[in-house]
Design brief:
Helices cover 55% and strands 10% of the residues. Helix 8 packs across helix 9. It is elongated. The model has no long low-confidence stretch (mean pLDDT 92).
Length: 298
């Protein structure tokens, strides 16, 4: 090394002492080491950048997967009426197995929250035919119904027969008004239950002809309707008791495989709240499996 320095780096007229040559060698070595270390650092930086880019890629993929899963769950809660769904509703009272659809009309009210508590405790999903006029008063309850996986169906806006049954169009108008209020309450503008229950029921009465015409108009707008074939009798008398409601359930479900049970969660139906745990236990004891309309309207 010293010979190289003497020959190539140091002019002949500048002769270095041994000490100076040693210093020069050390400086050159340090320069070489510095170059090597810098090269290593550049490699490390490249590796870190590559790792960071990979992390960013994985993070972005995780965010996309999370968004897709969130969207999937959102879509699952949006009823979609297919021909299969129409057939399911049309044949709801026929089943090879015993099944029970718990339905509540005329809410929400102060009774809806304790009903939801009972359903949650029992692990049961029900169907609520809400009134638009009550949705306006208790949107937070409607939101809870939706968030807890129950089916929100449509019972019109007013429940005033002279208003709703003026014409087939007024029936549809009440449906649409209620539907929009439900959308606003749950924060989901794509929601449409596609399911209507005529106030007072579909069959008979002085408005039978209007109802028949409205049924066709509703179907033209992808809306089906359903009544009931069993009930707890909470609208049959002004002061029902728990025992009375339980007996009406027993009487009206007897020998039926598939039952759609009419109950009410209106403000005056406190006894229904009290009777509900017994009603559920009775139906379980009779071998019924609980269903809601998400399983029919897909």
């Amino acid at each position: 090394m010293r010979d190289v320095i003497n020959k190539y780096l140091i002019p002949t007229k500048f002769k270095l002492t041994a000490k100076e040559k040693s210093i020069m060698i050390i400086i050159i070595i340090l320069l070489i080491v510095g170059i090597i270390e810098g090269w290593k650092k550049n490699i490390d930086i490249i590796e870190v950048n590559a790792q960071y880019e990979e992390y960013q890629k994985e993070l972005q993929e995780a965010i996309i997967r999370e968004q897709e899963e969130k969207e999937r769950k959102r879509r699952e809660k949006l009823p979609e009426l297919t021909q299969e769904g129409i057939e399911n509703v049309n044949h709801i009272y026929s089943s090879d197995t015993k099944r029970a659809f718990l339905t509540f009309d005329d809410g929400p009210s102060s009774n809806t929250q304790p009903i939801l508590d009972i359903l949650k405790e029992k692990g049961i999903k029900a169907t609520f035919f809400v009134l638009g006029s009550n949705v306006e008063k208790a949107p937070e309850t409607v939101k809870r119904i939706y968030n807890e996986g129950h089916f929100i169906a449509n019972h019109g806006y007013s429940h005033v027969y002279t208003s709703i049954y003026q014409s087939p169009q007024t029936v549809l108008d009440e449906y649409n008004r209620c539907n929009q209020l439900v959308r606003d309450a749950i924060g989901e503008q794509e929601y449409n239950s596609h399911l209507f229950r005529f106030p007072g029921g579909f069959v008979g009465g002085q408005y039978a002809e209007i109802k028949n015409q409205a049924k066709d108009l509703l179907l033209q707008n992808n809306i089906v309707h359903v009544d009931w074939n069993a009930l707890n009798g909470d609208s049959e008398t002004k002061e029902p008791t728990v025992d009375f409601e339980l007996q009406r359930i027993a009487d009206t479900t007897c020998d039926k495989q598939s039952v759609v049970i009419l109950m009410h969660d209106a403000e005056a139906k406190k006894v229904t709240v009290e009777a509900l745990p017994n009603i559920i236990d009775y139906l379980k004891g009779q071998g019924y499996e609980f269903k809601n309309f998400y399983e029919l309207i897909k």
